[in-house]
């Protein structure tokens, strides 16, 4: 049997992690995978997470199974964090999933079950694992324009024009905030226009929100998602706790299905639990418990929010510093968009060849589409990177 297997294409982001580790240069710079790093290059366990773990460790008496959907308290806490009071709670079905990727996967499984011929529309570009999972599941997909390479902003006219081609019953995948890989995001007004377009098409939005709190703040980053949930009869929302709680390896996420009424939410809830059972049975619990502890305890929550703000402001400072340095070195506003982008990523608009030169000659590792992880920088490496980019861009 195994001889029938073929080599699978390497995941570009994960392959880059391996290449970086294998590079012996001391001054190499890792701007690859989307993991937050502090200025010393460390990915810290957040203070509130440590404290929540300590509390769980000292009070937990059993590791017996929870429910197939995970602990209801986790769903309640996360629905509050992501949706606020945008939708009545009884219209929302939700299951804990292994990370945000697990939530995306379960959302797609739900779509395949309910609407097998629905086309899933993806922004061009999008996180490469979106099309990869969709292809693996054998689902039809299409792209809508999203990024304007010339300005580093959203090609909103192109996006709206393409959304006019969406058929009733299709699914439109939107990034809730901090677009991955570009860093270019919709304004509040553009969210409203997007909602109108998706509604007019009779399509269902699927929102991937993996970086809430990394852009303009916890509430501001949820504006689009809440507007969609409040306006649409139905939508799916895949939320990740990996980045904003810094619990990457705990695999903690939540899939929400907003239904038109409580009766349909109940059926969706049963279906989501069924899908969990088919794929991995009970979802991981530890990270979900940590998140619940933090979100439901006023002191822990305040501490988590303040540390998250520090993280966000550090990244904003690095964005501004890099944009300023590039403006100085290139004597142009070509890279000013870096300061306007939000979240962990910015797409620089360099060619794959230029990205390769940066890796080979300068030890700078970024994804082949010229996506950089801003958090891979610090005040010392910003000028080094800016110099390398300016050199490569002018060659
Ligand atoms: C990324 O885009 O780098 C992250 O979401 C990590 C991943 O799994 O790809």
TrEMBL record:
It is an enzyme of class 2 (transferase). InterPro entries: Aminotransferase_I/II_large (IPR004839), Asp_trans (IPR000796), PyrdxlP-dep_Trfase (IPR015424), PyrdxlP-dep_Trfase_major (IPR015421), PyrdxlP-dep_Trfase_small (IPR015422). Keywords: Aminotransferase, Pyridoxal phosphate, Transferase. Homodimer. GO terms for molecular function: identical protein binding; L-aspartate:2-oxoglutarate aminotransferase activity; L-tyrosine-2-oxoglutarate transaminase activity; pyridoxal phosphate binding. Belongs to the class-I pyridoxal-phosphate-dependent aminotransferase family. Gene3D superfamilies: Aspartate Aminotransferase, domain 1 (3.90.1150.10), Type I PLP-dependent aspartate aminotransferase-like (Major domain) (3.40.640.10). This is Aromatic amino acid aminotransferase apoenzyme. CDD domains: AAT_like. It comes from Wenxinia marina DSM 24838. Its cofactor is pyridoxal 5'-phosphate. Its EC number is 2.6.1.57. Transmembrane segments: none annotated. One of its GO terms (cellular component) is cytosol. GO terms for biological process: L-phenylalanine biosynthetic process from chorismate via phenylpyruvate.
């Amino acid at each position: 049997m195994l001889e029938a297997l073929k080599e699978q294409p390497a995941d570009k982001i994960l392959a880059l992690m391996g290449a970086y580790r294998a590079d012996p240069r001391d001054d190499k710079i890792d701007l690859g995978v989307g993991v937050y790093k502090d200025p010393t290059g460390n990915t810290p366990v957040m203070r509130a997470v440590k404290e929540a773990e300590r509390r769980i460790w000292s009070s937990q008496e059993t590791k017996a199974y929870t429910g197939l959907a995970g602990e209801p308290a986790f769903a309640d806490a996360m629905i509050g964090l992501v949706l606020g009071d945008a939708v009545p709670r009884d219209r929302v079905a939700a299951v804990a999933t292994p990370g945000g990727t697990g939530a995306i996967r379960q959302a797609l499984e739900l779509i395949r079950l309910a609407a097998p011929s629905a086309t899933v529309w993806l922004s061009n570009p999008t996180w490469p694992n979106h099309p990869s999972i969709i292809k693996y599941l054998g689902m039809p997909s299409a792209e809508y324009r999203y990024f304007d390479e010339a300005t580093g902003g959203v090609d909103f006219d192109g996006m709206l024009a393409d959304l006019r081609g969406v058929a009733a019953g299709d699914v439109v995948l939107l990034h809730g905030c901090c677009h991955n890989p570009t860093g270019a995001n919709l304004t509040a007004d553009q969210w409203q226009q997007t909602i109108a377009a998706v509604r007019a098409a009779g399509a269902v939005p699927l929102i991937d929100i993996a970086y809430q709190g990394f852009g303009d703040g916890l509430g501001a980053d949820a504006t689009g998602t809440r507007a969609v949930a409040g306006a649409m009869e139905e939508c799916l929302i895949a939320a990740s706790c990996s980045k904003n709680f810094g619990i990457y390896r705990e695999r903690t996420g939540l899939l929400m299905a907003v239904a038109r009424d409580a009766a349909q939410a109940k059926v969706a809830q049963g279906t989501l639990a069924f899908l969990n059972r088919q794929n991995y049975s009970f979802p991981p619990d530890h990270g979900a418990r940590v998140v619940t502890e933090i979100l439901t305890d006023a002191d822990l929550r305040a501490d988590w929010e303040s540390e998250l703000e520090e993280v966000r402001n550090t990244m904003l400072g690095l964005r501004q510093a890099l944009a300023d340095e590039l403006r100085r070195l290139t004597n142009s506003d070509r890279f000013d968009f870096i300061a306007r982008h939000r979240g962990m990523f910015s797409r620089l608009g360099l060619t794959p060849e230029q990205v390769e030169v940066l890796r080979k000659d300068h030890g700078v590792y970024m994804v082949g589409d010229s996506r950089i992880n801003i958090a891979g920088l610090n005040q010392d490496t910003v000028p080094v990177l800016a110099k390398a980019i300016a050199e490569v861009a002018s060659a």
